[in-house]
# Entry
Amino acid sequence: MAFCSLRSLILANHFLPVNMGVICYGESALVDYNWTCLVCNLGVDKSCDKCTRCGYLAGANSYEVDARNILIKNSESEHALDCPKCAERHLDIKYNKEPQKYYYIGFRGRQILFEILYLNIFCNKCSYKKEIEFDVPVLRKLFRWIMKRDIQSERLKRI
Ligand SMILES: [Zn+2]
Ligand SMILES: [Zn+2]
# Structure
């Protein structure tokens, strides 16, 4: 176990995602020039590490681009980050599980039978929440279609 955590620590420190010249250290990105948001094409000032229109973090991966696109598509307000409940500009979106952990274990692809990858839209100021199915495995769709209901077993839902 000690080896594992040491290894992941080393990996986390040496394999930083590099995307279009923007080096991203976890939550905060170092950006030394004005940039264009990959999701909504807004020109963003170099002093911001997040897009002010959709919240995309400079240099984040393609799963994050997908998530932000879904946030914009599901927006009930004129501004994508405005909460429909409290009207504050504090909406955010997050996968229920890291996509890399959902699709891959180690370097091998994972066999997914029924587990759904969800995106959760939530407000940082109030209790607003919305759950969106991002990826539903074919077997789960078949089960729903044939049985006219969803899987009940919590154990099956996780495989
Ligand atoms: Zn944007
Ligand atoms: Zn709110």
Residues 1-27 have pLDDT under 50 and may be disordered. The chain has two domains: 1-60, 84-159. Residues 2-14 form the longest helix (13 residues).
